[in-house]
Amino acid sequence: MSADRIAASFTDTRGGIGRTFFLDLDSGATISVTAPAPTGRKAIAGPGQFLLGSQGYGAFTTGRFGRDGVETARWASHGAMLVDKNDGVCGPELENSLPSRSRFRRLAPDNSLVDGPPLTGYYTSYPAMDCEGTAVFWRDGKLLAVDTDLAGHELFAMDDSRAVIGRALLLSEGNVVVSLDNEVLVFRTPLGSLAEGPWPCGDANLRGNPLLS
Which of 14, 24, 26, 160 has a Cα at 20 to 30 A from 100? Predict the structure, then answer.
């Protein structure tokens, strides 16, 4: 839910094909419906706006939809995307292939992609973003940070192949918390406080940090 709009997605779990219904919050009326497509990660892009990812059966895209439920942009990338205070979109790609071909990407306003650092491995936590626009997430046994210049920084590394699809929480004083299987790891980092943009975390805070008020 964002402002006066709701994006409700329904997926056939057997085939991974789904549709998203854009609804008016007050009346419940259906504004628009997407065509059936492979489902992927989603995020809130701004007031009444949403990012919808599609992955599988050859699809690997992210679309931006406005208040009228019409797609206004589309990128040839899919991942755990963050939206900063200036409406910029970036995040780690989540391609289902090994060896990894994924990178950290910025989704530019002209529908092009700006390359960040390549990403090894496969499983990726939901990312978070600090007040300077630096993203932080766990992938392939490493705590990684990518700054606004798309430079990658390895904050911590260990030999660990456990599947991590949880969240990276950015707490006060640069502390980052990551869950690994039955462990919770806390890292002291040079990161700033949580971004004050509306949606600084993966999946529009649905599985990321709580909203700032």
Answer: 14
Please give the C-alpha separations between residue 158 and each of 108, 142, 166, in angstroms, as whole numbers.
Answer: 33, 7, 18
- From the list 60, 22, 23, the residue with the least C-alpha distance to 38 is 60
Q: What's the pLDDT score for residue 94?
A: 93
Coil vs helix vs strand at 157: strand
pTM to 2 decimal places: 0.87
63 SS3 class: strand
Backbone dihedral region for residue 196 (phi beyond 0: left; psi -120 to 50: alpha; all else: beta): alpha
Is residue 213 predicted with pLDDT exceeding 70?
no
Question: How does pLDDT run across 54-74, given as a tens digit for each residue?
Answer: 999 999 999 999 999 999 999
What does DSSP say about strands 103-107 and 89-92: parallel, antiparallel, or unpaired?
A: antiparallel
Count the alpha carbons within 13 Å of 186 in the hemisphere toward its beta carbon.
5
Residue at 162: amino acid letter = R
Say which residues have a Cβ less than 8 Å from residue 27's Cβ, sequence separation at least 6: none
* 3-state class percentages of the chain: helix first, strand second, coil last, to nearest 5: 5, 50, 45
**Alpha-carbon radius of gyration of the chain:** 17
Contacts of 137 (CB under 8 A, 6+ apart): 80, 92, 124, 125, 126, 127, 128, 143, 144, 168, 202
Apex 172 CA angle, 48 and 79, nearest 5: 45
Q: Which two tokens stand for residue 112?
A: 């092009």
